[in-house]
Amino acid sequence: MYLPNQMQKLTLKSIAKEIGVSISTVSKALKDSPEISDDTRQKIKAFAKLYNYKPNNIALSLKNRKTKTIGVIIPDIVHYFFTTVISGIEEVANLKGYNVIVGLSNESFQKEVINMEMLANGSIDGFILSVSKETQLLKDYHHLEETINQGMPIVMFDRTINEIVCDKVIVDDTEGAKNAVLKLLDLGCKNIAIITTEDHVNVGKLRTKGYKMALESRNIFKSNHHILHLEEKLYDPIFIKELEVVISDFLKINPSIDGIFAVNEVYALSAIKAAKKLQKEVPEDLKVIGFTDGILSKYATPSLSTMSQHGKILGMKAAELLIQRLESLDVDLPYQTVIIETELIERETTENI
Amino acid sequence: MYLPNQMQKLTLKSIAKEIGVSISTVSKALKDSPEISDDTRQKIKAFAKLYNYKPNNIALSLKNRKTKTIGVIIPDIVHYFFTTVISGIEEVANLKGYNVIVGLSNESFQKEVINMEMLANGSIDGFILSVSKETQLLKDYHHLEETINQGMPIVMFDRTINEIVCDKVIVDDTEGAKNAVLKLLDLGCKNIAIITTEDHVNVGKLRTKGYKMALESRNIFKSNHHILHLEEKLYDPIFIKELEVVISDFLKINPSIDGIFAVNEVYALSAIKAAKKLQKEVPEDLKVIGFTDGILSKYATPSLSTMSQHGKILGMKAAELLIQRLESLDVDLPYQTVIIETELIERETTENI
DNA sequence: ATAGGCAACGAAAACGTTTTCGTGTTGATA
DNA sequence: TATCAACACGAAAACGTTTTCGTTGCCTAT
Questions:
Q1: pLDDT tens, B71-119?
Q2: Which structural domain, as residue segments, surrounds residue A166?
Q3: I need a surface site. Which of A5, A335, B83, B98 has the fewest CB within 10 A?
Q4: Measured between alpha carbons, how far is A26 from A30 in angstroms, rounded to an integer?
Q5: Is residue B6 a part of any domain in this protein?
Q6: Contact B151 A78 (CB under 8 A)
Q7: Candidate from B7, B56, B87 with C-beta closest to A121
Q8: How many domains is chain A partitioned into structurally?
């Protein structure tokens, strides 16, 4: 009787020794190769099942030169949008037998590079990533280029880079912003402001562009654009007070504002809070639309109308693109850029009273 | 001149062939072995650097029988607490040269098992996990036992299981809840309710226990306990309306309630919303404390006082425990259970006006 | 009787490392 | 001149698979 050492994983070799056959025979028997007689096959399979043999993934990876795992690099995981994207990635990855390994850049170029290098040397088959803000700022993309040159496919999402040719999945920020502002106009708002980021943040820039397009399409020109650019750091919860002050000041200077489009939930909620303190009622005196249909929008009081980015669908699409490329035999598979449509989720902040 | 095929990763073998030495020599040269002459070492290192040689992680893993990666299994990633835990894990993992591979159970026993089996066969060195609700309900822990029996260490966090002996990192739910309720008492609340989950959810049960302990320590006995147990599903944003209705009904039946302790942010915010509609002002007529210092607490209006679980610290501690065990030579390292202290974060919902 | 064929299995290479243990060459020493 | 280190390097095993290509032994057809 075989006494398995519970501390030692079963291998083909140990099974072979136990049954008294060669490693090859065990391997073939377990894969139902016709080369092996029914008799020995039964014996081997029974033994393997009894002691719960599972092939070693690392050995398989080395042999097959593929790991069946996807590397995901994101700037921040404590962030609703990114987590929904991950959940989408994970869902289709799992469905197709892939694992997901997560690296966080914390918005740092350095960490992004380190993390990618750590994973690029055989640990994964391909990347899904959204670059850090610092990378966008520095415009240094050598790590991305090198990775691609080494034959490792990348799918970029949300914060993509034009200079890099690869598959991309993006949110239609400009169109989404435009639609949000058009909605405010349709609701009767006459003086619509945008609360946005600095321009080097791509999504901020694109959403600002959409804002302008919407207004200009209704013949509201520059003199009546109200744009508040906020410093990076104000997004951080530790500056919540400062954020409110800045927005409050902005609203005081522009008392005619009756509609706000904010490029994220945080700006939107702070705007609402600031407005209340200035005795402006939402939505009666001021209508607000945010971006990202996260937890804040749903549970805020009043609940926030917002543009959903469908992060989960985005993640699913990104994973599909990557896996399709990984499993395609066609080396020249053309690169795609998939656009995920935004959708206006109407809640209390745009109710017409 | 060597013309590297950019599609092909550099290996020791290809370097060896190019320089005209053996594989062993290359390996030794790169590791600065004294066996190798300065001359050839220089040559090899220069070549390796020029073409950016990086050893293949998979081959290393196979050889060393360790992967330097940690498997993290959580029930849900679109959840503030879990993401902060991950960020903590990731931080110390990275510091110590480990990668993090994430599996989601989606609160499903089945997915939890599958995911763990997928990773347990060589892909990772150890697990950090929080079990799914279904696992808690079924009380089937065979996958955990088997994993441990195979010599793979596990660190459980938050939702731990007494029957399983392993390292654990937990939040002091009972104590935290007790302190929250004591705070409400100190603020002068006379009729304090708890909004909690069904009892099979461990954290809900423990926090309810803390609620009772606090009241009883001030001689407020059962007849004056107001406990609202909510169905699982009401936590989901799609049932936000129903949630509010249930809480609203509860408040109507118990009009004397002047303090609420909610076991999560969602219940707390819904309670505030319900109260407002019943013309109760927060914090004037009703004081509220939640659990989890997430994004909702910070940006709510009024901002929510809450018990912080310090998820990031918890994650860091869990990673430290695991890595310590992985790198310890002592097989009999005693198992630890680390308790992360909660902390009351006071905001507007407990202000004394 | 013998060639041919098939059934059932094993040996060995390969994936990319690390490391132990040779082995050949040099220079110095007795 | 013979011996012996020290030096510089290579061969090979090992990690756990898969797969190709033998190699047996036996049966059948000529």
A1: 999 999 999 999 999 999 999 999 999 999 999 999 999 999 999 999 9
A2: 67-171+311-341
A3: A5
A4: 6
A5: no
A6: no
A7: B56
A8: 3
